[in-house]
Design brief:
The chain is mainly α. It has helices at about 5-50, 55-60, 65-70, 75-100, 105-145, 155-175, 185-205, 205-220.
Length: about 220
Amino acid sequence: MNYDSLILTPFREMTATVLSFIPTLLFALGILIIGTFLAHAVQNVVARVFRQIEFDTVSDKMGLTKALHKGGIRRAPSSVIGCLTYWVLMVMVLVMTVKALGITVASLLIDKILAYIPSVITGVVALIIGMLVAKFVATLVYVAAKNTDMPSPAMLARLSKWAIIAYVGIIYLKEIGFVDLFVGAHYTIFIAGIVFSLALAFGLAGKDVASHYLHALDKKGK
């Protein structure tokens, strides 16, 4: 039995492979360590710059600080921007580290994730703007219904608000890749189900209000 070909040769090949990979590993670790250090440094600089230009004071006056607190974020707005900067840089560092290691599968996966991020950001921005518009429209509907003596102005305002939110939610789902849910028969069934459920709920819960309103109109007509 040839022990050299069975044991020593594979061992030498494995050792040579490991030794040849060590410089690549050290290079990748260097990128990760230096990148992390630089990301922390840039985070501190960015947060300090935004504090010096009184961004926190402006955010407090605009209501941004209050909105962050409602969302469970207790950091100052300047610190939040610094933290976002840090994570953006860390993503770049991680991508560079994986590419330096030469891991093809992980590199392709990261590229797909990075390509998906803009869609998520666009969807979130559309969702936030839609929520603000829904709140504004609900206020307008409430004021108009109140001034025209329409019944249940608060309910009409809520219906207007949730109708806009539902539409914006559909846009958000489209942006993040759930397009197939809103194409062809799936979309028709989905919208028909929502409309039917809303109509049924409104008809059962609002029949007394509608009767009262129609009775009041009938009295005015007479």
